[in-house]
């Protein structure tokens, strides 16, 4: 019996089948779940931020259906389609507070809706905390810049500029 | 003891119900390799038998090292959820004839959890989320001398979510859970739902607050994978939506 055991010990798989990296005493590392919950994982969050975010996506979505589809219709389909768009066309529309308001609301809603949607996607797909943080910073910067620039243009647009 | 022999002869002379089926199984053994591989097994089996019977045949007759969990073998313990032909199911509730035995039947471990060996995964993150929602009756004040009464209507309110067997088919079919193990996952929400809408329970508010978390119900994207996967036919996505609605109506 003891001889038998010695024999098995001596002929560990490595000897017979060439080099093996893993055996009973040195198992391969298993692939951890994507982000395992550890001691360092942040504690539960308080407040209703995610709830308001979720509600905002639905409510802004409903308003965007009207604003965006109307926008596309006016810009691309009606009255000669896309070829009619030019400086004069924009100047003509923004002379009316109604279209100013339309475009302003659409800008804000679409940007915040799109930004929050991208935030969700970054949260899902970024693997490392650092990557996630910087992608979100890039997203927020781009969003704030676009919203502010767009708002500025809508309010200070000067049809007589040369 | 002669009878079995006779039976066998008889069975062979009759038209055999057996067909040859290929099982393509995802194998992983960390004591041999860090790679998971597909391995094919061809077995003769009655198509009215279940995938679990096929796995048994393989383990008992062909390769004893094949590793999987099962306990009751009748769809009630929740041990043998696996990805069969790309869909999460219980091996003990899936008939061979229902999943096109002409083609190889693929069997993989459920996704999003650490594979320990072959079809066995580490269920700890799944049960951690389950424990987090406090899946037990919580009440205040004195205990009644007899049972806690409930009207049939009140019982009906959460009947669907009492059927859960914690097999993890839903949670491991959810893409949000796949790319981020932090999400509570459908099963934890189903089991919170079971107590939140129980008229006898008094900690619904606490459970709602737990699921109001960053990784709670708001991460659900309504893909319905969970409802499709549930072997108990629970309307999982609906339960999640009901928790969302309870959270919103509580605030407004
Ligand atoms: C036309 C009207 C629109 C409606 C009704 C709508 C509706 C929605 C809803 C309800 C969600 C949440 C999905 C979920 O939580 O599962 C969503 C997500 C999203 N929306 Fe919109 N949306 C609209 C327009 C837009 C526009 C114009 C943009 C881009 C600026 C946009 C970008 C996104 C993004 C990036 C997401 C995240 C996708 C995801 O969660 O996987 N949407 N949308
Ligand atoms: S809800 Fe259905 S799929 Fe999810 S763990 Fe319970 S029984 Fe399994
Ligand atoms: S073995 Fe118990 S549910 Fe399948």
UniProtKB/TrEMBL annotation, chain A:
GO molecular function: metal ion binding
UniProt-listed InterPro entries: SQR/QFR_C/D, SuccDH_FuR_B_TM-su
Pfam families the record matches: Sdh_cyt (PF01127)
Lineage per the UniProt record: Bacteria, Bacillati, Actinomycetota, Actinomycetes, Kitasatosporales
One GO CC term, this protein: membrane
Keyword vocabulary terms for this entry: Heme, Iron, Membrane, Metal-binding, Transmembrane, Transmembrane helix
Name of the protein this chain belongs to: Succinate dehydrogenase hydrophobic membrane anchor subunit
Segments traversing the membrane: 55-78, 98-116, 137-157
SUPFAM superfamilies hit by this protein: Fumarate reductase respiratory complex transmembrane subunits
UniProt main location, coarse: membrane
Organism for this UniProt entry: Streptomyces mesophilus
Protein's cellular compartments: Membrane
UniProtKB/TrEMBL annotation, chain B:
Protein name per its UniProtKB record: Succinate dehydrogenase iron-sulfur subunit
Assigned protein family: Belongs to the succinate dehydrogenase/fumarate reductase iron-sulfur protein family.
Cofactor binding remark: Binds 1 [3Fe-4S] cluster. Binds 1 [2Fe-2S] cluster.
The keyword ATP-binding belongs to this UniProt entry's keyword annotation: no
Iron-sulfur recorded as keyword: yes
Reactions catalysed: a quinone + succinate = fumarate + a quinol
Pfam families: Fer2_3, Fer4_10
Organism: Streptomyces mesophilus
């Amino acid at each position: 019996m003891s001889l038998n055991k010695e024999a098995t010990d001596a002929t560990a798989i490595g000897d017979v089948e060439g080099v093996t990296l893993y055996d009973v005493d040195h198992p391969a590392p298993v692939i951890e779940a994507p982000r395992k919950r550890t001691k360092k994982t942040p504690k539960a969050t308080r407040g209703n931020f995610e709830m308001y975010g979720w509600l905002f996506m639905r409510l802004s979505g409903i308003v965007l259906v009207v604003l965006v589809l109307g926008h596309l219709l006016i810009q691309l389909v009606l009255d000669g389609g896309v070829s009619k768009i030019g400086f004069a066309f924009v100047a003509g529309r923004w002379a009316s507070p109604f279209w100013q308001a339309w475009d302003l609301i659409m800008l804000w809603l679409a940007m915040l809706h799109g930004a929050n949607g991208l935030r969700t996607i970054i949260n899902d797909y970024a693997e490392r905390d650092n990557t996630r943080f910087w992608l979100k910073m890039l997203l927020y910067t781009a969003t704030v810049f676009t919203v502010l620039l767009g708002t500025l243009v809508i309010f200070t647009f000067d049809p007589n500029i040369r | 003891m002669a009878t079995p022999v006779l039976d066998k002869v008889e069975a062979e002379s009759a038209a055999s119900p057996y067909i040859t089926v290929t099982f393509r199984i995802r194998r992983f053994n960390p004591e041999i390799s860090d790679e998971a591989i597909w391995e094919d097994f061809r077995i003769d089996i009655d198509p009215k038998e279940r995938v679990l019977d096929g796995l048994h045949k393989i383990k008992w007759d062909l390769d004893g090292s094949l590793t999987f969990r099962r306990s009751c073998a009748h769809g009630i313990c929740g041990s043998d959820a696996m990805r069969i032909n790309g869909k999460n199911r219980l091996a003990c509730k899936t008939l061979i004839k229902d999943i096109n035995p002409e083609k190889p039947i693929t069997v993989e471990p459920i996704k999003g959890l650490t594979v320990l060996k072959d079809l066995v995964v580490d269920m700890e993150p799944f049960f951690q989320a389950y424990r987090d929602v406090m899946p037990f009756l919580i009440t205040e004040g004195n205990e009644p001398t007899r049972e806690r009464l409930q009207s049939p209507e009140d019982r009906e309110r959460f009947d669907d979510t009492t059927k859960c067997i914690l097999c993890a088919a839903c949670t491991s079919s959810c893409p949000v859970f796949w790319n981020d193990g932090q999400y509570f996952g459908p099963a934890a929400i189903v089991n919170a739902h079971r107590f939140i809408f129980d008229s006898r329970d008094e900690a619904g508010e606490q459970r709602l607050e737990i699921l109001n978390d960053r990784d709670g119900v708001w991460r659900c994207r309504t893909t319905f994978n969970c409802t499709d996967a549930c072997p108990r036919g629970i309307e999982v996505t609906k339960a999640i939506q009901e928790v969302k609605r309870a959270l919103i109506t509580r605030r407004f």
